[in-house]
Amino acid sequence: MSIIPKGIFVPLITPFNDDETIDFQAYKKVIDFQIESGVHGVLVGGTTGEYHVMTLEERKSLIKAGCEYAAGRVHVMAGVGCSTAKDTIELANYAAECGAKWGLVLPPYYHKTSEEGIRKFYKEVAAKSNVGIVIYNYPGATGVCISPEMIYELSQEENIVSVKESADFAHLCQVAALTKEVDNFSVFTGEEHFILPTFSIGGQGAFGILINLLPKEIVKLYELAVEKNDMHAARDLNRKLSGIYDLMEAEGNPYPGPVKAGMDMIGIKGGKVRKPLTQPNDEIKTKIKEELLKLGYKVNSLDQSLV
């Protein structure tokens, strides 16, 4: 039986060199920073990691490096979604060989299939993969929204262990309600604004772009809300963080550019995003700097580049 993911999982950014090759030395430092800050797990090669602008070999190299750098300190989830079940299974099993515990899988998209096609896709992937499968419901990116009823049905599969919900909060609430009695299945949010509300309705974990920049704060939010059941203190912390939540996906600044810029400011290399993504503008950088200063961080100058 697969281990069930719970807690705060950071969807890792991928630092690049100036020539857009992966900076593995900086990647190790990012992972060390996250683990030392108390995250419960890491997601390698997810959307925030810019997998969609990588070759298959690059994706594999990132998964391998992520597992090696985590070195058993926390469990690793790998982004393994591909257009076909066959390719998804191949990448999932490669991730398993590297030491990953779970694979994050998007539904088939672009040329949309039926609900039956989605059902068969996930069941085939789950049956033939050597990692636990986490459903990734991200209709804003894929144009495909997996219904709460479908997620509930898939949660009955032995090797489908969790869902990452990046739809609206009403959808997440429905999923949480339908699956609350399902053993060995967890519900995660993928949105910063939904982290605290997700815990309040019984969700077991969270992803968020911002965790790359503020892992200690988001872990603290989890500890207050889930482990200590101190919702008053959790709300206070959430209010302090709310000013920076919107900046992670600000209009005209495609993520993960803003969070990478913030990491540069605190001395952890985030670096540039890969084309065709665009770099964050100076206005958004200034706003991120202001929020970091409010939170008590010492911030590098905006024009300081890290090497």
UniProtKB/TrEMBL annotation:
One of its GO terms (molecular function) is 4-hydroxy-tetrahydrodipicolinate synthase activity. The keyword Cytoplasm applies. InterPro entries: Aldolase_TIM (IPR013785), DapA (IPR005263), DapA-like (IPR002220). The record marks 47, 110 as: Part of a proton relay during catalysis. The active site is at 136 (proton donor/acceptor), 164 (schiff-base intermediate with substrate). It is found in: Cytoplasm. Belongs to the DapA family. This is 4-hydroxy-tetrahydrodipicolinate synthase.
